[in-house]
Write a structure and sequence with these properties.
81 residues; elongated
Length: 81
Amino acid sequence: MATDPSEYEKAMPIVAAHLAKIERAVDRTRATHAGQPFAAVHQALTEALREEDAPRVVPQVVEELAQQISAADTEPRGPGR
């Protein structure tokens, strides 16, 4: 089954806008919740996605992102670290 290239071109701006919403939610959550417990990060990320009007993200993706943010090293890195 071939896909019409014009359909791809029409869809890309919509996909890019959705990804930008997700990225803003992740960045905001990372800035405020890095290194915090998973449950707090997951809740904050879910709320940030809702606020960005991007609530329909695959649950496994939200869980993985929350895990990464929760596990983030919040210590400043200096020379030799």
